[in-house]
């Protein structure tokens, strides 16, 4: 058996296989926070990466958004603090592995979004075309493996045309080419005219081999209710998958009381991980909201343990 992630030091979590990380999250009993950060935004704390700041305020998992695995740039890393430096990097080719340096600095499991775009999607808004390095394909999955990502999240940003059908296909592909945890599902519509979450989609994702099923947090997407989330969570867990609720509708920048209400409501529904999105200043949630979520779902004792524990332990 493994130690629960809630109490792990860096030296313990960095040795975990994907199966051990999954069990470690499960053992934490709904008290794990995944914070999403935009890698190409000017960081909120100047010359520090947003991932470092998120970790300092209670994040257990870091999810990189806008991460181009074919041109891996993470603003705030040494040599990646000014946009002029980024232009030069792109011109001359990116050398080394920026993700390895980020993992050294943060000491937490790190993942990235890959988007299974459906070119035939019935769009509800204008399609946003994203770079190849952000789309899910054999090429990008292999590169995510080479970079050493601990997990990937098969989901869609606003307007990108990601569908549940393509997510299910992408899970099958990911199982062949990526050894880390696979998170799959939609935080919102991603511009497509289809239900964001359904029991049919959950069954497809679990059958395809997803480790964690992603749902919009109750209170973020119109009409997605507590009872629907409870049913979906129970279905996923009955077949061995973990679950994650996501605040991906810019409500991550709401007041702290709203964050606490969403956090408690979704914990009651039984999710294993709570995600907080990146729509605050500098491409991440306001730090006080990450901290507020932590206090709400695990109390002060565990919050202090998370924020104060040295990554050198």
List keywords for this structure.
313 residues; alpha/beta; TIM Barrel; 8-stranded parallel barrel; 11 helices; 8 strands; globular
Describe this structure in words.
There is one protein chain. With 313 residues, this protein is of the alpha/beta class. It has a single domain (28-308), classed as Phosphoenolpyruvate-binding domains (TIM Barrel, Alpha-Beta Barrel), CATH 3.20.20. Helices cover 39% and strands 13% of the residues. It has 11 helices and 8 strands. The protein has helices spanning 10-13, 18-26, 50-56, 83-92, 98-106, 138-147, 164-177, 199-208, 226-238, 256-268, 287-308; strands spanning 32-38, 61-65, 110-114, 151-154, 181-185, 212-216, 242-247, 273-276. An 8-stranded parallel barrel has the order 1-2-3-4-5-6-7-8, surrounded by 8 helices. The two termini are 20 Å apart. The mean pLDDT is 93.
Secondary-structure topology with pairs:
Layout: H1 10-13, H2 18-26, E1 32-38, H3 50-56, E2 61-65, H4 83-92, H5 98-106, E3 110-114, H6 138-147, E4 151-154, H7 164-177, E5 181-185, H8 199-208, E6 212-216, H9 226-238, E7 242-247, H10 256-268, E8 273-276, H11 287-308
Parallel strand pairs: 1-2, 1-8, 2-3, 3-4, 4-5, 5-6, 6-7, 7-8
Helix pairs in contact: 3-11, 7-8, 8-9, 10-11
